[in-house]
Please model this.
Amino acid sequence: MATVYRAWDTRLQVHRAVKLLSPNLTHSGNIVERFLNEARAMARLHHPNIVAVHDVVSDGERSFIVLELVPGGSLRDWLDRHGAMPPRLAARTCVAILDALQAAHEAGVVHRDIKPQNILVSEKNQPMVTDFGIARFMGEDRSLTRTGSIMGTWGFMAPEQKTSAKTVDGRADVYAVGATLFTLLTNELPSDLFAADMDDELLGSLEPQLRDVVRHATRYRPEDRYASAAEFAETLRVLLPYLPEDPPATPPLAKISTSLSAPPQSGKSGFGLAGNTMEHVVSGRENTIIPGGDSLRRLPPGDYTQEGTGLTSFEDRAQPRAQQLFFGLSAFMFIIGLAAIVWALFLRPEPVAAPPVVAAPPVIAAPPPVEVQPPATPPEEAAPTEAPPAQPQDGGSTSPKTPAAATSPKERGANPSRPRDGRNNDRAGGASTPPQTPTAPTIAYGRVSIYESQATEVWLIAESNGQRFSVGEVPTGSYKIMATWGGDPTVAGKVKVEEGQSVNLRCVKNFERCVP
Model:
């Protein structure tokens, strides 16, 4: 979108930074207005930790901003050279950033793009906030940000800014500073830090004192964060004496560079053209989402002297290699497409019809013979024989009684009066004690409910045994929150249910997360 040059001010005899809008974007009224909006935002602010604006020029053909030159590089440069920052140095750096943002918020300006790339370092190792290109003026509607549009850098954006950047306030910058502090401490890009309440591993590598600070600053709801940048800064100031001392070999924030007190040497410049006093420093933004943005193109030849600035002309710039590559690939694809059309219309041979293929009839295997077993005939038991009745003899006397035949062993075994274990089953000696029934353990319950849900379905999986529960009254314990968002189910978070506790969940489809 823009290119930054180091320049020599021939009137004031000082070095300046000149931020030039890409010439191919000067005909877009919205982009030019956004570019000038950056100058207006920075001109409102006067703070030692904010880069100062000295002039702005826009005449329809070219637009550029004259800024204070900050030669010490950015915090991103420091991380690339030295890795993660010591805790005390990181906290002290964020205090300076928060002081600058508090001044901006009091002036009605929300930065909306705080990240290590946009924090420069002066020669005196002071962090300085820059790049207010997508800043918002609170209380003013300049119609530069459409409702529902997304602006900023994804990992550093507050959740409400990912939904709509038009209505955010200073608490979105508080979230971005918390994400910046995380990056300084770990040299890693932040990702959904608002979920740290449900996933302790997100902040597990931080110092215990700073872990709670980052968690508080990056909570999901703005009202749960620090109320202002000043409150956040005061919290870090209180913690500074308790953080470990910086190692003796810790390098300064500013990169080592040559002194800029002397004017540039006349003659051939770094770009190979004599008499020019502007040198390219850095191009554009990195990983910044700007609706309607375009790729960076170099400045065409021309006289860029503007009355009142004292700046000498820019040097000629060659067309960038990326643009040349684009046109080369476009021409190559056009030739390939044209050749394909000519081949399809005139050179393609007629297709030869292949003889039909007759499929052989399928071979049906005979089923195996089934052997039928005759049913087994159970043995028949002989019917018991009864003794014939005694016949009376002469004289009315009867014969002696025949003793009864002994019962069969089968019948003796069926006698209920004789138990098999040989024990006396008679209850006359006293009643036996009935078996005791074990008492079921008492289960404590809590309740999980959903007060706002964008998910298709939500349920719980117990971490102890993997059992599934519907939302409602559930036993106490830890659960995984499972949800579907129109596709396959995903793990949307974790929740711990205490006895008698009621947990209300909010399920947001944009992040596929369910949070209390």
Summary: The two ends are 41 Å apart (CA to CA). Residues 142-149, 267-277, 279-319, 390-431 have pLDDT under 50 and may be disordered. DSSP finds nine helices and 17 strands in the chain.
